[in-house]
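Colleagues,

Please find the record for the two-part complex below.
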Amino acid sequence: MSETTIQTVIAAVKILVIFNVLLGLFSLMTWVERRVLAFMQFRLGPNRTGPFGILQPVADGIKLFFKEEFIPPGADKWLFIAAPAVSVITAFLAIAVVPYGGSVTLPQASWLGPFAGREVSLQIVDLEVGVLYIFAITALGVYGIVMAGWASNNKYTLIGGLRSSAQMFSYELSLGLSWVGIIMLAGSFRIQDIVAAQDGGFWRWNAFIQFPAFLIYVVASTAEVNRTPFDLAEAETELVAGFHTEYASMKFALLQMAEYVNMITVSALGTNLFLGGWNAPFPGVPDTGLAGVAWFGVKVLSVLFFFIWLRGTLPRFRYDQLMHFGWKVLVPAAAVWILITAGALAFQGPRPAAAAVGAL
Amino acid sequence: MDFAALLFYAFGALALGSAIVVISQRNPIYSAFALIVTLCSLSAIYGLLGSPFIAVLQIVVYAGAIMVLFLFVLMLLNVKREGRDPGDGRTLKGVALALAVLLALQIGTVLMRARLGPARPLDASTEKMARDLFSLPYLYVFEATSVLILAALVGAVALARKDS
């Protein structure tokens, strides 16, 4: 086998694995979310299908599969079908540049053939502009929602779609600005470099060094994935179910899947940018190869749990408050923080700057 | 033909096809979505030419930010279909034809003079680009553009204010 073929095979295997892990995590998350929310509200949640109700996602999938595919008579047929596809594609594209571990060396086993002893990096594409790429793909993700809202030809879906695109658009700005300090400290757009800059104990993580940026990221990313308290796009008291009111069956399932995959992406990205990626919290604890993947998984799952916790705790924003908060609080705060970080960098150089900003 | 060339032609065809849809569609929403497809294909071509930074910027700025605003206006006004051509069709067609011929002549001249061939690999890394932008030949142009955009921003805010 030629070198290109080998690389292609490795990439294909990585894509397949990540795709299936995402799908599995998505269906698991729908169940976990309902159970955890129920626990927080003194209910039981779905507990009938299988042990602890863990087969509930399977039952839901079967149910959705056999539901009627319905396209409303006044709807724009093509865009109505394209909307869930756009949502899902953009959701899955973003994860391509997110690393989930350092690298593993395949064992020297004969059955591996030409792959034996090869070092495989645990990331699908190591893009030089990784962070910016994610920013671009999230920007495209808005279109799925806008399309769904408009194509349904229903005023509630249209308002839901416009609300959510305005919201994503506004919070994307603070989301991007919250990354700038980190990018300056690491001196690179590559996520690998950003993770490497946080090596050596939890006090080196950007969540501590760049604490204000971390807060802004948490708020902005929650808004970006339309989760409570920012789920105005589907405020059921005002808009029925928002942009996906008219969707049923598998198209509904796809929109739902896009939402959860986005949430997983945002959690994985937040882990990489702010929580040290696959680095262990204490120096000396093993975090290379599969141990790193384990650390990464633990962190991502904690962030996902945090999202569910938020949903169980906070009431929804009012729309005007949401816009005011985004534009008049988050964006200026992020800009000031960039100035502080840049100042520290300019006067002290990268390493001491990290320490100085951390001390603030 | 290698894989990169295949991708280049595929995205080139997609860009051209969707660009034709942009101008031939009567429904402005379809035009807007087709324009997004064009911009994304162009971005893919930039990526193939070895400049991921420009590729990503193309999506962030044009497909991501500007087109959302276009769609917003179209959807809020709820423009379903464009009506008949405004004004005298014959005069407009004449002007359009003249302009098209002019454009074809210009493109033709450029193509005649250009040496066509595969794109040379260029050092378009983010760092190189940043150094170029913030050093002398381009520094003033870059800063002047920033001031211009800032002025446009302030102007837009001033126009949008209801009171005063």
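DSSP finds 13 helices and two strands in chain A.

Comments are welcome before we finalize the supplementary table.
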